Structure formats: structure tokens, C-alpha cells
Amino acid sequence: MSSPVSYQLEDTIGVISIDSPPVNALSHAVRQGLLDAINAAQNDASEAVVIVCAGRTFIAGADITEFGKPLKDPWLPDLLNTIEASAKLVVAALHGTALGGGFETALAAHYRCAAPGAKIGFPEVHLGLLPGAGGTQRTPRLAGVQAALDLITSGTPIAAGEAQEIGLIDKIIDGDLRAGAIAWARELVASGAKIRRSSEQDVPEFDHAIFDVYRSKLARRARGQVAPDHIVACIEAAATMTFEDGMAKERELFMACMDSSQSAAMRHLFFAERLAAKVDGLAKDTPQRPIKSIGIIGGGTMGGGIAMSFANAGIPVTMIEISEEALERGLAIVDKNYAGSVKRGKLTQEQAAKCRALIVGSVDYASLADVDLVIEAVFEDPELKKKIFAKLDKACKAGAILATNTSYQDVDAIAAATGRPEDVIGMHFFSPAHIMKLLEVVRGKKTADDVLATVMALAKKIRKVPVVSGVCYGFIGNRMLSPYGKTAQLLLLEGASPQQVDNAMEAWGMAMGPLRVFDLAGLDIGYKAREALSDDEKGDPKSYRVPDLLVEMGRLGQKSGAGFYHYDDARKPTPDSAVQEIIDQVASELGVDRRTVTDEEIVARLIGALIDEGKKIVAEGIAQRSGDIDVVYVYGYGFPAARGGPMFYGANRG
Ligand code: T1G
């Protein structure tokens, strides 16, 4: 089988070209090809060598599919040391996303150039890893300790221009990158440029206190994660040891990360997220309907957030409300959100203005006559939704996709309110919709394949993580939230306090404990949903009696200043003895003997409730695979990525 790496002389410049789709990952074949090529260059007429990649990106990292298997020679750190030791001047030419081992390869070159749109970064921390091929040792020598800490502990890529400012890239090349890099290599040789090995450079002056400052920051930001702390240790080694000793430290801590359950969990999620975007049985070449503009029904919190998700992707939005006043309120939510994005540095003022200009309002459904997709985002009243879909059926052109953002209701029943059920689908966004990445795509019984394929591709365009769900009450995430919430209520009656339940779950890794989540969402949502059910349908009163009493007392959660907790104006949850009295009273009424409940029992029962429901959801075919459920819970419900999702955790906890 031919090597994915070719080497040829162009006059006096040796060109190493890597062509290994889809992202030129550093598979064994690529590593071997690179080694053979750099060795060949040492003994030929070349005066300099250029490393360039074909396809959409420079090397995007080590080949993650090889992780967990016996590592084969050449090991990447050794290969990169060989490239750096080259007697011929080496230039790396970057385009696309030069990430992880890919950018480490570039750092082993003596000079680096990049196309204007290129990005560089170290996403290893998102895999529970750290750069294990010299990245933690070479980056601080070139860019300084602070920049190295920021870049490697965040895992966030930076643009080529910013990389150039901090000394990681030397030159931006417009036009043909390959030709430009070869010409630049010639210039470097002609000007007598030195072979510049970053491993031989000293780390620029820095304040030694920076490491402890960073450790305390990470203790909060990356609570419980192993890799970030190891990254700080590696960069500290780069700043205080020889390159060789620093490399030994990096190798030791890299292997510790690689062997950790956290990295196994995060690597599982990396592939689970990509697999979730694939629909079993749906042909890859299923035609998609063009989506050039969309409509949104409802300018509430969800409608505004959804509108921004599309506008931020450059897709014009028409927001429909029932009155001018309601429309004004809806657009004001959008304006406030954009101001927030600018304040947080997520968008520049110009970017925000450009996106905001793509959102227009109307009170007339006739404004939707030409849109290609409409997303209904009104409150959870099934009858109202059916009325809206009947109107959309008449107002929208043939072929327009009609989507509902419902988080519980029967998408098939909504589809039946139209004469085009094949054009109807669920698109369940998560609040705040312009920030949360999860999108549950609910496939109705009659949803056409091209509608599903269109929405799955559109999700990626608006930078969401799509997961397909069948139709059931609550789809995947909210359906699992129900037994999770009921178990939390039982734990309260049996003897745990709200703060004990929440603190136990947050110490375990959940972003927020269940009672704080319900206070945030509003206890009245569940109360209203239960009002529509018979006593039989409501199930065991132990699972809802306490929250119902709280709602009847006007304690709706954060929005009313009190729910399971009391909230001061900073929305800080404070335990409230009045709630404990209610819990004691209901426990006694329902004959529940109270006892000491341990944190371990709280975690085991709550996570167990998620796992048990998840198994049913897969067995019923509501979710395609258990990895999809992990993606839902990590991206939409604050489940710790370092534990891989409820189903991965359940399968590996022994
Ligand atoms: N290894 C193997 N396959 C990879 C891969 C990788 N590093 N990156 C992507 N793929 C596959 C992916 O599974 C999918 O396959 C296809 O490429 C397209 O990916 C030693 C230890 C580069 C920004 O973490 O961030 O280097 O589903 O759908 O949206 O110190 O892929 O088509 O069969 O994501 O355009 C560090 C991970 C590794 C980068 C492109 N590098 N990749 O995004 O396409 S560890 C990373 C990405 C490391 C060193 C350390 C993204 C992308 P399929 P995609 P995309």
C-alpha cells in the first residue's frame, strides 16, 4: 500500500507532502512516511525542506483511533526530535486546523508559515490528555509561559495572526500556500537564515508565582480533572529543567493521562459525538433541501436564542409574534443577548451588528411565504402548537420544513395537524439556545428522509451537536430527567436534605445538583404538566408532593426568589428551614421513615436512575445507540465529560 507521505525535490527544496484523509492524522503510516522523508532529505541535494499537507487541513493531531492500542515505532516525540535535528532547514506550511501533534510537528520545524485562515491549538485537554510530543516544552520556549499555559490548558485554537503575534508562527502566506512556502524556504536559505531549534531556546523571563496562580484557577474551572494540572506541571518543567528532562516529565505525565479513566471517557465522547451525527439506514447522499432563510414562531427566551443561532451562522431569520408589543419584547431579548456576547468577548461589536441585522420581526404569517424552514417555539401547550402548525401548513410554501421546538409533546400529533406530516420534525433546543450546543432532532413516524438529512446537516452549520430521537414523552434527555427527579424527591423524604443531595452530585461532577436545576427551570413547569394528568398517571405522590406544596405556596424556584432554596438578589441558593419542615411533614403524611442517607447512596441511586431509563430508551429504539445518550447528557444536562456520559459510566463502573 503506497505511503500517504511523498517526498520530491523542487530544484533545491525538498517537499514532504502528506495526503491522508480526512484530517492527515499522524497514523503509523504517516509517521513512518515522515521519518523516511526527513532521513532522505539529509543525504540529497536539498538545501531546505518544506512540510505541507493536502486536503482540508494540516495535520490535525495524533490518530486518536490508535489510542488504547500498542504504540508502534516511530513514536511521535522521537520522530519530531529527528525533524528538529535535521541538518537541512525545515519549514512547516500550515492551513486548516493544525492541532495537537500536528502543531507539535510544526514546532519541531525550524520555521513556520501559515495560510491566513489557518488555526493552531492543543485540544488534547478535551480528550483528558496533554501534548505528548514536545508541545509543553517547545511552546513556552517560543511564546512564553503565560501564552503556553493559556493555549494548552484551554484547548482553544487561535488564529494564525494571533499565533504570529506570540511567536508561534513566523509568516502568513497569501495565495498558493505550497508555492509560497517553497519560495520562502528559498529566501531563508539565500539570506543565510540559521537552523533555529526551539528546544535550544531559553524560556523567556516569567513570574514563578504564575504556576500556583494557575493551579488555583484550574481547581475551580477544571474541578476534578487530571490533565489540566499535569499540563501546568509540564510547562513548569519546561521553565525549570533541561529540554531532555522536561521531555521525560512530559512523557511520564502524558502516559498517566492516557491511562486514566477520564481520558478513556473523553475519547469515547469524541467519537460518540461524531457517530451521533450519523443516522443508521439513512444514505449518506440523501438529498438535502436548501435552507436560505428561516422563520421562528415565538419571541420568548427560546425563540430569541434560536434566532441568534441561525443569524450567527449567516442565515436570515423572520421572528413572528402575536402583537407588536410581544415582538418588541422578543427583539429586545435578542438585543440583550448580543450585548452580552460582545461584553463577554464572544463577538465583536461589528460581528454582533451584522448578525443582528439578519433578524427581522413580523406579526403576519404571510411574511413566512418564502422561508425554507419554520421553527415553532411557543410555550408547551399541545393544542396551541397544533393550531400554529395548521396555520403554517397554509402560510408556508411547498417543501418548507416545519419544525417544533417542543421539549415533551407528541411530534406525530403535531404533524397530523398539517397536510404535510412528511415535512414535520422536532428540533429541541436547550436554553440558552444561542449557547447550549445540544440539539435533539425528533424524527416523526412520517418525517421524510431528506427532511431529517437536511436538519442533521443544518445542525452542524449552526454549530450544534445533533442527536436523533424517536417520539416519546420527553424524547431522550427530559425523559431521563423524570426518574432522576423522582429519585431526588424520594431521597429527600427518606432523610437527605436538598443541599446534601445537590452537594453530593456536584462533588461527584454534575454541573448542578437536581434540586438547584429544578429551581432554575421553575417548579411550576412540572406542576402544570402534572395538572393535565390523572392521579394514576401522576404515579407515586412521594415523587411530587413536596414540589407541588412549594408551588402552591408560591415558591416557584429562582424566578420567585424561593423554591427548594431561598434566593437572595444574587440568585445564591440558601438552605431554607421552611422547606425542611415541609419535607418532614410530607414524609410523615406518607409514612416514610426517615434515616441517614449517605452521599454514596445519593450518587448511586440518582445516576442509576439515569442509566436504567437510558437502557429502556435504547431498547425501544428512541435513541439509536447508548453513546447518543451520553452525548445528550454531557452536552445538555451538565453530566461530567470526564465520566463519559451515564451509559459509558454505567458500563465501566464495574
Ligand atoms: N484522529 C483520528 N480521526 C480523526 C481525528 C484524529 N485526531 N480528528 C478527526 N478525525 C476524524 C473524525 O472522527 C471524523 O471521522 C473525520 O475525521 C472528520 O472529523 C500526540 C496526543 C480536525 C477540527 O483532538 O477537532 O495529537 O466520522 O467530523 O468538524 O500530543 O475533527 O468522518 O469517520 O470532526 O471538520 C489532538 C480532533 C489529538 C483534533 C475537524 N487532535 N479533531 O472538524 O470534522 S491527540 C484533536 C477535531 C494529540 C499529541 C496528542 C476535528 C477537526 P468520520 P470531524 P470537522
Biggest sheet overview: 8 strands, mixed
Number of domains: 3
What separation lies between the terminal Cα atoms?
41 Å
Q: Catalogue the ligands.
A: (2S,3S)-3-hydroxy-2-methylbutanoyl-COA
Model description:
The protein is an alpha/beta fold and 654 residues long. The chain folds into 3 domains: 5-259, 2-enoyl-CoA Hydratase, Chain A, domain 1, CATH 3.90.226.10; 294-469, NAD(P)-binding Rossmann-like Domain (Rossmann fold); 477-621, N-(1-d-carboxylethyl)-l-norvaline Dehydrogenase, domain 2 (Orthogonal Bundle), CATH 1.10.1040.50. 47% of the residues lie in helices and 12% in strands. It contains 27 helices and 19 strands. The strands form 4 sheets. An 8-stranded mixed sheet has the order 12-11-10-13-14-15-16-17, with helices on both faces. A 6-stranded mixed sheet has the order 1-2-3-4-6-9, sandwiched between helices. A 3-stranded mixed sheet has the order 5-7-8. Helix 1 (28-42) links the parallel strand 2 (13-18) and strand 3 (48-53). The longest helix has 21 residues, at 599-619. The radius of gyration is 28 Å and the shape is globular. The relative contact order is 0.07. The mean pLDDT is 95. Bound molecules: (2S,3S)-3-hydroxy-2-methylbutanoyl-COA. (2S,3S)-3-hydroxy-2-methylbutanoyl-COA binds at residues 22-23, 25, 60-65, 76, 97, 99-101, 104, 123-124, 127, 129, 131-133, 135, 274.
